[in-house]
């Protein structure tokens, strides 16, 4: 695999190392690792097409992680009181679900990195403990802690790092020594926090480690003895180091209730009693997330607890805190996380693979430590602590599933699977240097996109001519399998957000997953997007130029294409073509879909100036360039006379439908069906047409029951809906949904007339909608609402269509009336002018290149 292909694997491994290494040292360091892993996982789940199926066990674990945030949201709805900051900590369990599902399905070795990250975290925790206590920097005098973690969570996390860093039988002797040393440092840091709960964690954790270290599942008497001796030794050492804290706790428990009411144990007892009372008063869903402090203050006012106890924002116990704020539903959801993962890890303790046993041990210790420390403190109130728990469980179980999946493969398949993310690479094609074109197209193989159809319809014709297209496109759309095709992400955050939203929609639709993840992706990229807009102010896809140049340059080195062919649509493809020509000297041809600059247009913003600059580069440096309308070419030549000998126009046309003969006329009924296909927008809307339909119905009321407007691809737009309602014809518009490209011609053939909405902007004078050429193949009458475009009017009229000004409802009503009565009296007949196909346009292009760039075409056989 190339270094670039290994990049996602290396980044994931680095983040798996940094998460535990920074959890006690860098504020938000571990959460930054989680956010980056989440982004990688979302992209990976979207792009990878051959991921293993999710098992029942994985679904159960994912649901358990989702349960606690869902319980909090249910409480918001139940109490009709939403405090979004209180969802911060529980939401971390939800955010690790994509990480868990993705890493469990790919072959990225992460446990080794996680273990060594824990070892580094132990070193950092021990160093900080010495520094903080020795120089009196700790906010808790004489106890190891820092300004974002108090002593009890510090001890919990340090102990988890220590026991997770312990080696298994697969490590070398040197690694054994280093990891053991790091684990001792981590335990020392945990004891330096003076947390008494460490006494409850060390014995079971030590015993479990000795059991997980066993070989082949057999435990001899000698191993039992060593396990017991080691456990007792560690427990005795910790008890000796914490004897003063133990003595204080015993004294506080033995004192009379009123003597030390505001001591450490006294405050805990007050909070536990108050939380129990709150829970008993609201047993099902609790008092509401974030509402316990108010309840404690009420109890202090009533004299039930002291003011010092009321100053706490939690119960000093996870279980009681969750019961008080989220009731039995919330407590059950939290226990579900502990129990489901505990069962999953405990099932792997008898695995013959040391790595699986070691990961299961680390996961069990993580759960045990959180649960034990949570008995006397609230571990799930801070987002950092819930994030570490969720991420640790996700990484450890994902490693287990990776190893179990590899164990089921044959040796050859296992070796192949170990090459991480190998299926992200495109197939290796061998292309001769004199028969390939490098095609740069931001949109490619995207069903229903006009910019994609313009180029994808040409690909079979290029290949039939002996040219192999080597395509670089954005990641939207399907990857081609008959020729080389690189799908490259843009480097800018705005484009990444657009690509992610499109890919999520493409894979899962616009349902729950789309609504869940797209706001999350937008939120994560929002700061960078704002910076990008302030610095550059260009369209989202502008940054795709960098990726296209990088991959295009590599493909030119490999395939030696005869020409660089940029097409769009998106001007980033043309910028990439310009720079690749400058870098490599390969001839550059450009296909411009839409007019970039209009006559007299003011260059008021950076993006418009960028468009003008793009047109200038094409006109001055492209070896050949063509526009898709005669008017657009003439306008460009007026601005850039040097283009004249190298510029021409070609109608994009449309591929013929599958039927070899024209479809028969639609069967005439009593209802005149006029159909519109494609998208609608603010600038291309049905407002004027709805007014025209209202005028016609007002003139001829008898037509109300005989006209229906069928909409495919896009429902009635906002302006059209408003005008239709005002005209009283809203009931005549019917939305038929979105159709696959293959089904469009069949639907067109069933229409009695086809409605073409051109728009009313200045650009319409130089633009012909790609849908026009598909309409021509349907051999049905076209009602064109056009705007200052004689070229488009001629295409429609010479095929016996109807034309009206798009901004004149009265003229549209006249054309609609004529179309209706021609249909009614069977007076319409198709013209003799044939449709415009893609082949005719490609023939014109090949003829031009044969004269100007003969090296771009292979010799005819």
Number of helices: 32
**Low-pLDDT ranges:** 1-6, 410-433
Question: What is the CA–CA distance across the termini?
Answer: 38 Å
Share in β-strands: 5-15%
Largest sheet: 7 strands, parallel
Shape from CA axes? elongated
The secondary-structure class comes to alpha/beta
Strand order of the largest sheet: 3-2-1-4-5-6-7
- The strand count comes to 13
Mean pLDDT: 84
Alpha carbon gyration radius: 35 Å
- Helix percent reads 55-70%
The oligomeric state of the chains shown is single chain
Characteristic terms for this protein:
32 helices, 13 strands, single chain, 7-stranded parallel sheet, disordered N terminus, alpha/beta, 861 residues
In short:
Helix content is 56%, strand content 7%.
Describe the model.
- This protein has 861 residues and is of the alpha/beta class.
- It contains 32 helices and 13 strands.
- Strand 6, helix 25 and strand 7 (647-649) form a beta-alpha-beta unit.
- Helix 1 (3-22) packs parallel to helix 5 (111-134).
- The relative contact order is 0.07.
- The model is unreliable at 1-6 and 410-433 (pLDDT under 50).
């Amino acid at each position: 695999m190339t270094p670039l292909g290994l990049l996602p694997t290396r980044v994931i491994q680095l983040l798996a190392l940094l998460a535990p290494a920074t959890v006690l040292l860098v504020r938000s360091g571990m959460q930054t690792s989680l956010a980056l892993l989440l982004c990688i996982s979302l992209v990976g789940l979207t792009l990878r097409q051959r991921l293993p199926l999710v098992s029942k066990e994985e679904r159960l674990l994912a649901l358990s992680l989702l349960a606690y945030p869902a319980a909090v949201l249910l409480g918001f709805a139940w109490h009709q009181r939403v405090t979004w900051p209180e969802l911060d900590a529980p939401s971390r369990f939800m955010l690790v679900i994509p990480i868990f599902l993705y890493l469990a399905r790919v072959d990225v070795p992460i446990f080794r990195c996680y273990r060594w990250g824990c070892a580094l975290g132990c070193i950092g925790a021990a160093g900080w403990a010495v520094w903080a206590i020795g120089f009196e920097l700790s906010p808790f005098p004489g106890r190891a802690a820092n300004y974002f973690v108090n002593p009890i969570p510090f001890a919990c996390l340090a102990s988890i790092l220590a026991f997770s860093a312990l080696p298994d039988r697969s490590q070398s002797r040197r690694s054994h020594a280093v990891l053991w040393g790091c684990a001792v440092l981590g335990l020392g840091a945990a004891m330096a926090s003076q947390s008494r709960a460490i006494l409850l964690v060390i014995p079971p954790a030590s015993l479990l480690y000795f059991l997980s270290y066993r070989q082949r599942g057999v435990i001899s008497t000698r191993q039992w003895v060593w396990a017991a001796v080691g456990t007792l030794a560690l427990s005795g050492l910790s008890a000796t180091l914490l004897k003063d804290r133990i003595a204080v706790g015993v004294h506080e428990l033995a004192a009379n209730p009123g003597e030390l009411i505001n001591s450490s144990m006294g405050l805990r007892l007050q909070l536990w009693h108050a939380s129990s009372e709150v829970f008993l008063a609201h047993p099902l869903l609790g008092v509401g997330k974030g509402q316990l402090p108010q309840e404690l203050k009420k109890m202090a006012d009533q004299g039930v607890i002291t003011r010092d106890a009321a100053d706490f924002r939690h119960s000093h116990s996870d279980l009681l805190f969750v019961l008080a704020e989220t009731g039995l539903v919330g407590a059950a959801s939290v226990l579900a996380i502990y129990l489901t993962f505990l069962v999953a890890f405990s099932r792997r303790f008898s695995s013959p693979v040391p790595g699986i046993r070691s990961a299961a041990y680390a996961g069990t210790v993580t759960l045990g430590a959180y649960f034990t420390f949570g008995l006397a403190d609230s571990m799930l109130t801070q987002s950092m602590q819930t994030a570490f728990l969720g991420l640790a469980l996700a990484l450890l179980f994902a490693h287990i599933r990776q190893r179990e999946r590899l164990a089921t493969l044959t040796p050859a398949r296992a070796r192949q699977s170990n090459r991480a993310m190998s299926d992200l690479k495109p197939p290796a094609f061998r292309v001769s240097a004199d028969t390939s074109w490098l095609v740069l197209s931001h949109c490619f193989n995207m069903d229903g996109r006009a910019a994609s159809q313009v180029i994808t319809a040409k690909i079979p014709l290029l290949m039939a001519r002996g040219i192999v297209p080597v395509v670089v496109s954005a990641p939207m759309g399907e990857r081609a399998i008959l020729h080389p095709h690189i799908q490259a992400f843009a480097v800018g955050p705005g484009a990444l957000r657009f690509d992610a939203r499109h890919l999520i929609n493409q894979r899962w639709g616009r349902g729950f997953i789309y609504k869940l993840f797209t706001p999350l992706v937008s939120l994560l990229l929002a700061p960078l997007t704002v910076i990008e807009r302030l610095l550059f102010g260009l369209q989202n896809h502008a940054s795709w130029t960098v990726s296209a140049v990088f991959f295009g340059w590599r493909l030119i080195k490999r395939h030696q294409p005869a020409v660089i062919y940029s097409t769009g649509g998106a001007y980033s493809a043309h910028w990439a073509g310009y720079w690749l020509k400058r870098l490599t000297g390969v001839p550059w041809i450009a296909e411009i879909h839409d007019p970039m600059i209009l006559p007299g247009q003011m260059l008021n913003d950076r993006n418009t100036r960028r468009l003008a600059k793009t047109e200038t580069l094409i006109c001055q440096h492209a070896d050949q360039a063509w526009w898709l309308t005669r008017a657009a070419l003439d306008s460009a030549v007026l601005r850039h006379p040097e283009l004249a000998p190298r510029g021409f126009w070609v109608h994009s046309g449309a591929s013929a439908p599958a039927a070899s003969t024209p479809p028969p006329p639609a069967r005439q009924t009593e209802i005149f069906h006029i159909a519109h296909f494609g998208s609608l927008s603010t600038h291309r809307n049905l407002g004027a047409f709805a007014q025209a339909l209202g005028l016609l119905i007002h003139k001829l009321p008898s037509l109300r029951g005989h006209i229906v407007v069928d909409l495919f691809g896009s429902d009635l737009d906002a302006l059209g809906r408003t005008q239709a309602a005002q005209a009283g014809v809203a009931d005549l518009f019917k939305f038929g949904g979105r159709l696959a490209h293959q089904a469009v011609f069949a639907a067109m053939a069933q229409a009695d007339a086809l409605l073409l909405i051109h728009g009313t902007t200045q650009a319409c004078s130089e633009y012909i909608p790609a849908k026009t050429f598909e309409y021509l193949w349907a051999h049905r009458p076209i009602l064109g609402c056009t705007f200052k475009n004689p070229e488009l009017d001629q295409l429609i009229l010479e095929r016996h269509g109807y034309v009206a000004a798009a901004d004149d409802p009265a003229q549209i009503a006249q054309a609609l009336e004529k179309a209706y009565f021609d249909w009614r009296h069977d007076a319409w007949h198709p013209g003799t002018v044939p449709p415009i196909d893609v082949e005719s346009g490609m023939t014109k292009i090949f003829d031009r290149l044969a004269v100007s760039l003969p090296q771009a075409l292979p010799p005819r056989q």
